[in-house]
Amino acid sequence: MSENIDAARQQKKMAEEAKFLARTPSEEIGPMYPVAKPEDRGEDLVAGADGVAVDGQILYIRGRVIDLTGAAIEGAEVEVWHADPHGRYPHPCDMNPAVIDPNFTGWANMITGSDGGFRLRSTKPGPYPTSTPGWWRPPHIHFQVTTAHDRLVTQMYIPGEALNEKDELLMRHVRLNQDDRVTARVIALDEGMEDDALSIEFNIVLPTPHTIAAQRKDRAKS
User: Fold this and answer.
1) 75: Cβ–Cβ under 8 A, 6 or more apart, which residues?
2) How many domains does the chain have?
């Protein structure tokens, strides 16, 4: 009897949550979070530390930080870090033997505007081998988003990458039916962007006190 009650309670909770946007899933911060953050280079990581353009395909990322109702979260701090096109992080403990791009700083820090939006011009990260035999991480980008009420660490994946279906972390999201929340969407290039660039969109959904209150109020009605 208790199992039936618990199952019914869970189904009710899922139905209530479905009325709101689903939160962006979290990930571990990982070992390659910058230990010595480079000089803030704004929203453009293509012009390297010495003013020399970095290697690889230009990648444009745009997105919004929004709450569970879709409302913009202004003033959120968005930190981004990722490997260079060779799969190397500018981190002293990265053991990947691949060549490293000396001009790639690998970290950016942005504050969302009134629309919750952020933009970044960078280079597409490359795959790299893990310490698990046979497991290569697909191209992905790390995010840490901090607001007055929450902090989220997650990873963003690029659709269509050959290694996506073999990645243990992404496949976990697939099993939980939430891979769409960590996978970017390819969008058209804007005027002025390089012809061979890649442009993607990635929105991040976080709870806020008033959206949690709205969920509780909605739950109380049912």
Assistant:
1) 111, 112, 147, 148
2) 2
Q: Please indicate, yes or no, whether residues 213 and 117 belong to a single structural domain of this protein.
A: no
Q: What is the pLDDT of residues 34-53, one digit of tens each?
A: 988 877 767 899 987 677 78
* Tally of CA atoms within 13 A in the half-sphere of 96 that contains its CB: 23
Residues 220 and 143 in one domain: no
Task: Look at residue 40 and give its three-state secondary structure.
Answer: coil
Identify the helix (H) or strand (E) that includes residue 205. strand 204-205
E-assigned strands of 53-201?
58-66, 77-81, 107-111, 117-123, 128-129, 136-137, 140-146, 151-157, 185-186, 198-201
Evaluate if pTM is beyond 0.85: yes
Domain that holds residue 218: 1-20+208-222
How far is residue 135's CA from residue 188's CA, in Å, rounded to a whole number? 32
